Amino acid sequence: KHQRCRENNLTEVIDNTRNPDFVRKFVLDFFFEEKQNLRFDVYNVDSRSCNISKHDFLGQTFCTLGEIIGSCQLLQSPPTFEVPNEKIPCLIWQDIATMQLCANKLDKKDFFGKSDPFLVFYRSNEDGTFTICHKTEVIKNTLNPVWQSFTIPVRALCNGDYDRTVKVDVYDWDRDGSHDFIGEFTTSYRELSRGQNQFNVYEVLNPKKKGKKKKYINSGTVTLLSFKVESEYTFPTSLHYMSPYQMNAYAMALKAVGEIIQDYDSDKLFPAYGFGAKLPPDGKISHAFPLNGDGEHPNCVGIEGVLEAYFQSLRTVQLYGPTNFAPVINKVANCASEITDGSQYFVLLMITDGVISDMVQTKEAVVNAASLPMSVIIVGVGPAEFDAMEELDGDEVRVSSRGRLAERDIVQFVPFRDYIDRSGNQVLSMARLAKDVLAEIPDQLLSFMKSRGIEPRPSMSSSPLHRHI
C-alpha cells in the first residue's frame, strides 16, 4: 500500500564515488510503541538543480526506525539524540528491583468469604508524607496469598536513599472501591535487599485494633520470598522533552486551557512560575521561580508569552526535586488576599507529573486559599499514580487540614492521558480537556461572590475573571 512521505531530508552530495559516506544528520522522534516506516531514495546528481526529478534515480530501500535503533550496538556505545546545546544518551543504566512477597494468617474481612488481599507500596517524602509507588494484584478469597513477583525501579522505591522508610499497606479488595484496611508494616530498600531471611518477615499491624484489644498481636504477617537487583539499559524519558515536531504534554495542556481562559482576562498579562528547579548561577533550589527569569516582573504577554518563557526556562534551569506545591499556591493566595471585593478573581493552572513532596503543607495552603477569590486547576501529565491529586480535588471529600475543612471546593484535577485522542486528533482532545477543567470555574466564582454577599455591578467594564496565574 502506498504511503505518503511526510518529510524530505536531503544528505549532502558526495562527488565521484560509488561508496559514499554521508555525514549530514537527521533528527527523528523515536516512538517505541509505533511502527515508523522510512524510505531512502538514492540519486546521482549531474546538475546544480534543486529539483530532485532533474537527477538520475538510482534506487530506493525501505526499513523502520525501530530496525535502525535495534541494530545499534547499544551495549558498547549508546547512540545519542542531539538537541540544541546538549547530547542526551538514548540509553542509560538504572537499577531495577525484582521481588516477591506472600502473607500468612491475614485478618478475615469478607462476611461470606475470607479476604481478597493486595499490597500498596509507598515511598516516604522529605516532609514525612508518603507517595504511592506500586500496587500488587488482588488474590481472591485467601488469608495466605502469594503475590506474583514484580519489578520496580530502585529510584521509585526510595529515591536513592537506601534507608528511607518504605511503607506497605495491606488491603482487602472490595468491588465498590471501599477497600478494607487490614494493616501495615514498614521496611526500607536496604532491609529488602538482604533477601529472604528471618528479618524480612513483617508483622501486619492495625493501629485501631491494637488500641482496642489488649490481647491483639497482629493482623497476620508478610514474608519476602525473594529479592534481586539488576542494572539495565533504559530510555531516558522527560515529560519536558522539546521535540521540533510536536509540543510536549506540559505545553499542550497550557495552550489548551490558557487559550480559552485568557479571553476573560482584560490585560492578557500572566505571571507564570515554575516549581522544583535549581536556578543559575548558584544552583539555588526554588519552588516558585518566575519562568521569564524576572522576579520583579513575572508577567508574560498572552499564553504564547507563557509558552515562550517556559521553553526558555527549560534551557536555563536544572529540573530538581523535591516537588513542593505549597509555595506557588501560597504565592497566588497572597495576591488574591489583597483584592477580595469581587473585582478580580484568580485562577492558578498547575501542570504536574503528580509527584508531590509536601502534601501536608499543600492541603493547608488549599484550605487557606478556599476563603479567597481563587481557583486551582491541576492537570496531571505522564503515567504516574495521581492519588494525591485526586485527594486535593474535593469532589468526593472536601480537603481538610488540622481539623479545618476547606470553605469551598476550589480544586479541579484531570489526568492529561485521558485526553489523548487515539485517532490523532489533538485539536478535539485539547478542546475537551479545556472544557472539563474549566467546567467548575463559574460555580466556584459564584460561590465566592455569594459567600461574601457581592452583587454583580449593573455596568462592569470588564469581567471579574481579570487575572490568571
UniProtKB/TrEMBL annotation:
Residues 77-202 form the C2 domain. This is Copine family member IX. GO terms for biological process: cellular response to calcium ion. SMART domains: C2. InterPro entries: C2_dom, C2_domain_sf, C2B_Copine, Copine, Copine_C, vWFA_dom_sf. The keyword Calcium applies. The gene is LOC107391334. GO terms for cellular component: plasma membrane. Belongs to the copine family. GO terms for molecular function: calcium-dependent phospholipid binding; metal ion binding. Keywords: Calcium, Metal-binding, Repeat. Pfam families: C2, Copine.
